[in-house]
Design goal:
mainly alpha; two-stranded antiparallel ribbon; 13 helices; about 75% helix; about 0% strand
């Protein structure tokens, strides 16, 4: 294990401890941001070690599930700390995650991979399975609340929220079963005999276990430092006149940094299937775990929860899914598809800041 991969997560975790007991001024916020970035790179390194030991698609599942678990903890803690002002935070964060994944991450991977390799291949069956599940989850949790009549506004009634939470868990669990057991071959990287990374000797059990432990430390540091920085982000957003929904975007961007970097590295190495596994796995886990968790918190603690999207967000969501469906239809990609996704992502960010 490289010394930096061991020292950076420990230093970031120590800095998180300092930030939790001290007032976070500008200087400490800058240091926390630098530590967060370092923890992102370290977490990707350790995730790749674990992934190489356990094989695909289990490796990408480890990173996606770990990050989403900490993301859920971050969202719930923010909801509990300020219930009145965070009713829409889960919706904004989940929607931002979908847009970042489907357009930002996928677009960046297609662009980077297309520039370096001209065309890249992936398994249509695996990608379409992930996309179809994501569309169903998004409709049930983010679209339908805007059209139901049992509760006012963009909310679900308790019975509807319970159904949406159970449906989210069922769909996500079934996707994981299909991805890892039933049709695992749909999610394996496209065979490339000359790939040195694929045929490299896997790390030992001891090294993989150590990397898994350091991965947990790095991800705790990433999410914890993101929470520490969130008040500063809120102040900066307010000073810039940005709407409150921009806070959810900022949180999602920070939390998704490790997966974005890992997916981009995989695309650069001509392993686009791994990039897509990371992308759709993260988006599905974000909804499949976040919605049930915040639903339980909302009903047990009486915290208000607004899930329905506004018309502008609905248009961007539908546009993203239509374009993604076209992108994934052939099993091959090139740079133009990446540019289209990135332009949609830019539109999402622009109209979030300038509604």
């Amino acid at each position: 294990m490289p010394s930096w991969a061991l020292l950076i997560p420990l230093a970031a975790a120590a800095l998180l401890g300092v930030a939790l007991v001290m007032a976070v001024g500008l200087a400490l916020a800058i240091v926390c941001l630098i530590a967060l970035m370092g923890a992102v790179f370290a977490s990707v390194h350790h995730a790749e070690v674990v992934a190489h030991r356990v094989g695909e698609p289990f490796g990408t599942l480890v990173l996606s599930l770990a990050i989403t678990t900490f993301e859920v903890a971050l969202i719930v803690s923010l909801m509990l700390s300020n219930p009145a002002d965070t009713a829409a935070l889960p919706r904004d964060t989940v929607f931002a995650t979908i847009m970042i994944i489907c357009n930002g991450v996928v677009g960046l991977c297609l662009l980077v991979g297309g520039i370096r390799h001209r065309e890249q291949a992936f398994h249509v069956e695996g990608a379409n399975t992930g996309l179809a599940t994501l569309i169903a989850l998004s409709a049930l949790t983010l679209v339908l609340p805007a059209f139901t009549t049992s509760a006012p506004g963009l909310t679900y009634s308790p019975a509807q929220l319970t159904f949406a939470a159970i449906a989210s868990l069922v769909l996500w669990s079934m996707f994981v079963f299909v991805q890892t057991i039933r049709h695992r071959d749909y999610f394996l990287p496209v065979n490339r005999p000359g790939d040195a990374d694929t045929h490299a000797a896997p790390p030992s059990n001891r090294l993989a276990a150590a990397s898994f432990g350091m991965l947990m430390v790095a991800l705790v540091a990433v999410v914890g430092l993101a929470k520490v920085l969130s008040p500063r982000i809120e102040v900066a957003m307010a000073a810039a006149g940005a709407p409150k929904s921009a806070i959810g975007i900022a949180i999602a961007l920070l939390v998704l940094l490790p997966e974005t970097w890992a997916a981009t590295r995989a695309a650069q190495a001509n392993r686009l299937q791994t990039s897509l596994n990371l992308a759709f796995g993260s988006a599905l886990a974000s909804i499949g775990l976040t919605i049930p968790a915040v639903a339980v918190a909302s009903m047990l603690l009486g915290v208000p929860l607004a899930l329905g999207l506004d018309p502008k967000e609905l248009v961007l969501l539908i546009l993203s899914f239509v374009v993604a469906s076209i992108t994934l239809v052939s099993g091959r990609t090139h740079v133009m598809q990446g540019v289209v996704h990135l332009v949609i992502f830019a539109a999402f960010v622009f109209f979030a800041l300038v509604p």
